């Protein structure tokens, strides 16, 4: 006789007063960006053990979730996340151009993905678009704006329980979470940009209001919202940051900011950027770039073949600390 085993999970996601709640408790998301590449097999996981190893290291570093970037991952991966209690943002790979054909194919495939992932309790957020890729001109043009609005509402029609982020990073139209990508390399500059605290008055503080109302650009020239759309009190997350280039070989390698050459240099910058985010009371969480090196990108916490580049326990300690800006000194902590 054949036997089939299954499982189920129950949880509630909600948004109240600018915060994301899991089972009615505030959820501070500590995510890591994961592209899911392996040197020996590309985008195909080489084994179930390889998937488990990635998740074990993510947990060991103190992250409570991940954003699977530009990839629909192996179903076994989501099973493991369900089992281990690791939160997942499910993100659609972007189209290359914005055309009628692209819209038709995108819509059909995206709804299949939502249907496929719907019953995984680990999946807590839908991300159909990223950084205006495949929806060029969304800041000003009505057709890509309408398209993202349509995908938002279609997703909500299929799944009213999970938040939807229509254009992760910038130029949002309708989104349940306002997510911002910012690869500023110094903690002090990061803190100045986002802080509302009076200690930053000499630098021109109260930037939250200016950013969310499109009065100023952030991250080298991007607006938070596309024209015609406005902030409505959504939770705010920094959903890409860091990306510190860390390698001893500079030829053909790439990362964000000035490259560091050793773990000491890396951890100093890493800790100060984290401090700028963790001490900010209105930021509801973050996603660090990234888990592993990928091809020419050398900004992972692990090498492409999953060797540690940094002390995982140190990363965990930074991830799990709680900072209060009023107890910090600007010149020392950032």
What this model shows, in words?
With 334 residues, the protein is an alpha/beta fold. The protein has a single domain (13-323), classed as TIM Barrel. The chain is built from 9 helices and 12 strands. It has helices at residues 48-60, 75-84, 100-117, 142-158, 187-194, 207-212, 263-278, 312-320, 330-333; strands at 13-16, 19-22, 25-26, 29-34, 65-68, 87-91, 123-127, 178-181, 236-242, 244-246, 256-260, 283-289. The mean pLDDT is 92.
Overview in brief:
With 334 residues, the protein is of the alpha/beta class.
Show the helix and strand layout.
Elements: E1 13-16, E2 19-22, E3 25-26, E4 29-34, H1 48-60, E5 65-68, H2 75-84, E6 87-91, H3 100-117, E7 123-127, H4 142-158, E8 178-181, H5 187-194, H6 207-212, E9 236-242, E10 244-246, E11 256-260, H7 263-278, E12 283-289, H8 312-320, H9 330-333
Parallel strand pairs: 4-5, 4-12, 5-6, 6-7, 8-9, 9-12, 10-11
Antiparallel strand pairs: 1-2, 2-3
Helix pairs in contact: 1-2, 3-4, 5-7
The name CATH uses for the topology is TIM Barrel
Order of helices and strands: EEEEHEHEHEHEHHEEEHEHH
Q: Summarize model confidence as the mean pLDDT.
A: 92
Reading side by side through the largest sheet, how are the strands ordered?
Answer: 7-6-5-4-12-9-8
Structural class: alpha/beta
- Please provide the count of β strands: 12
The second-level CATH architecture is Alpha-Beta Barrel
Radius of gyration: 20 Å
Largest beta sheet, briefly? Answer: 7 strands, parallel
| Number of DSSP helical runs | 9
Overall geometry: globular
Low-pLDDT segments: none
Tell me what portion of residues adopts beta-strand conformation.
15-25%
Terminal Cα separation, in Å? 63 Å
> In which range does the helix fraction lie?
25-40%
CATH C-level label: Alpha Beta
CATH superfamily: Glycosidases
GO molecular function, one term: hydrolase activity, hydrolyzing O-glycosyl compounds
InterPro entries: GH, GH2_Domain-Containing, Glyco_hydro_2_cat
Pfam family, one: Glyco_hydro_2_C
Organism: Enterococcus dispar ATCC 51266
